[in-house]
Design brief:
The chain has one domain. A hairpin with an 8-residue loop joins strand 3 and strand 4. The chain is elongated and about 60 Å long. The chain is of the alpha+beta class. Helices cover 43% and strands 20% of the residues. It contains three helices and five strands. It has a five-stranded antiparallel beta sheet.
Length: 132
């Protein structure tokens, strides 16, 4: 029988479903902030490359800092709940769970219903989703 890592929050299906309304709001914030941060990707990369030469500023730098902070805060909130973000754009998340004595992941993504309907083995990923 697989032992759960004491650092990982283990969810029952009911616990994950009860948390889902809050998690959906956090994931929506993550998606919004990630999209905003992504717009700065090239400028931020150039700024980082120029930083050792005294450069490093980017146009809209204050806004970039704000949305990067918002993204970091929302990611921290999700992590504190024990929920794993798998894909920013799809809003794909996993809730660690136990099924028949082994660790599995309860799977949900933005646009799906108000309750979890899928799970998969740790190594199966999204392609291995199975109905609950």
């Amino acid at each position: 029988m697989a032992q759960a890592d004491p650092e990982i929050k283990i969810f029952t299906v009911d616990e994950a479903n009860a948390l889902l309304p809050s998690v959906k709001k956090i994931v929506a914030r993550i998606q919004k902030s990630h999209k905003a941060v992504s717009r700065y990707r090239d400028a931020a990369k150039k700024a980082a490359e120029s930083a050792d030469r005294g450069g490093g500023g980017i146009a809209g730098g204050q806004h970039y800092a704000v949305v990067l902070s918002e993204l970091t805060i929302a990611l921290s909130e999700l992590e504190a709940l024990g929920v794993q973000l798998k894909d920013f754009e799809r809003g794909l998340i996993d809730f660690p769970s136990l099924r028949d004595g082994r660790m599995v992941l309860l799977c949900w993504q933005m646009g799906e219903g108000d309750e979890l309907e899928w799970w998969h083995d740790l190594d199966a990923g999204f392609a291995g989703r199975t109905p609950l």
